Amino acid sequence: MERITLAHGDGGELAHKLITDVFVSTFRNERHAKFDAATFALGTHELAVTTDSFVIKPIFFPGGNIGKLAVAGTINDLAVVGAIPKVLTCSFIIEEGFPIRHLKTVVQSMAEEAKKTNVAIVAGDTKVVERGSADGLYINTTGIGIISHPLERNMDEGDSVIVSGSVGDHGVAVLVARGELGLVSTIESDCTSLYLLVAKALEASQRIRLMRDPTRGGLATTLVEICEDFGVTIELEEECIPVKKEVKGACELLGFDPLYLANEGKVVMIVPKEDEQAVLDALRSQPEGKDAAVIGTVRATNKGQLLLRTPLGTTRRLYRLTGLMLPRIC
Amino acid sequence: MLEVTDHSTLSQMLLQEVKTLADRFQQTFGRIPSFMEVCGSHTMALARTGVKKALEGYVRLISGPGCPVCVTDQVTIDAMISLTDGVNRIICTFGDMVRVLGSYGTLMQAKTEGKDVRVVYSPVDAVRIAEQHPHQEVIFLGIGFETTIPILAAAVKEAEEKQVRNFSMWMSTKLVEPILRQLLHDGEVALDGFLLPGHVSMVMGRKHFEFLATEYNIPAVISGFEALDMLSALRHLLLLSLEQRAVVLNDYKSVVTEQGNVQAKYWMNHYFTLCDEAWRGIGVIFDSGMDFKSEYNQFNAKVKFPIPTREPRRTKCRCGEVIRGLIDPPQCALFGRACTPLNPIGPCMVSSEGSCAAYYQYMREE
């Protein structure tokens, strides 16, 4: 009998198969399944809605905790579809024995993160389960936003691919924080809300084609999905992709690829070549976007492949995350 | 701090030089040179960095038997998986092992069926788990080459010092020297030189590999894992081949010394002794692995939990030929069809150092 394995939750090939075969095919909403948040009209308003569950281990990590992550992650899913995040609901599943002081710290972080973007946390739910039935604390957040900048999503050859900063920081920070690797590192998670950063970029260009926050599965899996969903071929320049030295070092040691590590405070966007500099300047004007870089180009609009050009001048195709054993990181 | 590098120009210049030397080799000997990278990490790095693809038609790079998961015999894999059948046991292993298909399933399947199988990053973590669960037996699956054996010894040392009695190890380790001798003795693949494993050499030292030059008259170069490191090593190999000089060069001096890590070798030999090991697709090679000395049998899972061997179920998997350098992964009929990283049939597709996984992940174009 086929059963769910941990790999079904890593955001890669198996997770994609599960979503396609079980959820999308049953719920029959294929169009909306392509985006981080679904958009819909209600009266005269165009709205966006998204939901996400956070099961990270450990709950506290350098640069954040599960509460900050839950709020930032949901705000980011709204921001990247061009929405102004407005309200969030949250649901807590708490294991018997979890310290209340830790819960208070987590909830305080949620309030602080929501305040940054002026988002109201408006409703919630609390369930306590028996010791051993959960791992400390799980949080689900649902967010609603108003669409301010509908994205056109039509990409052209020559469009630029921009990432707002270095990739893999969150993945490595959490792996190190678990204390299983015997590594000491100063790397902090990039976990943060991106709405204000994205708003600056949208001010700089009215023609941003598409945005995504490359969380589970990392930059590579996110871009593979864009390539497949929209039929575009993107060529990345390996040397242009910002990766911190510490992240690179940890990856070499552990056999991970930074392009497949989770991020929680980065946005990748596709913009017309003419708007590239304006968007870069806008991103770099904000602290979260100071390391923004152009990392690739849309080469064709009919093949749907993600390619990586190496410093040797060769290209290789990138696929969704497959077979990497990463513990729960978001 | 972000790394600002411009390796591109340097890499391309070195690549060009390697190609020029390879051309000269072809003009001199009437064929392209064949080098074997012994180590699975090199196999992955050569594919990931694009070196292998860039040298297609110039240099034949053959993956050798240096991936610990890939060389583990099917009978051993079956035995390791059947360890989960016992009650009150926690099986600890490195990540790749949980997905390797045995004759009757995987460790991952055993885990999803409720068996306690845990992935650890170090065998020392398994000792800690044993301390935390004094009423359960913790068994670590000890696979690996000379790079890993000292770490296994470190775990046993910790268990011994802390008197952890519910910790044991199922050893299936392999040594590089005997398999290289076997490959050269069999002569199934014509080789012009070896790209030697940087990590194993770090433990064993350059001198350990001198037998290749003195006894088999074949050049070898110890290399790091960056594109520039590997291109530099290939350049040396080509120069040595052209000059018909058989020497063993250390091109990874920042890490590898002449004698290696004396302390690591001491602890390896303190707890373990040479034993015959079965290699996947090759068979049993005399003194090609290490197992517990009898005085440390309290840590030997094979003694504590003897398992009857079962006849393995045969598949059409050709991993055995891949690790002997006889075929490239796409030549296996299962590659990319029945056998993918999501549904691996053979260990070379599972392992993060496996030749098939490297091809599938980095060299597949469709």
Automatic annotation (TrEMBL), chain A:
Domain PurM-like N-terminal, chain residue ranges per copy: 36-147
Q: Some GO term, biological process aspect, for this entry: which one? A: protein maturation
User: What superkingdom does the record give?
Assistant: Bacteria
Residue stretches making up the PurM-like C-terminal domain: 157-306
Q: Which family does it belong to?
A: Belongs to the HypE family.
Protein name, entry field: (NiFe) hydrogenase metallocenter assembly protein HypE
- State the taxonomy lineage: Bacteria, Bacillati, Bacillota, Bacilli, Bacillales
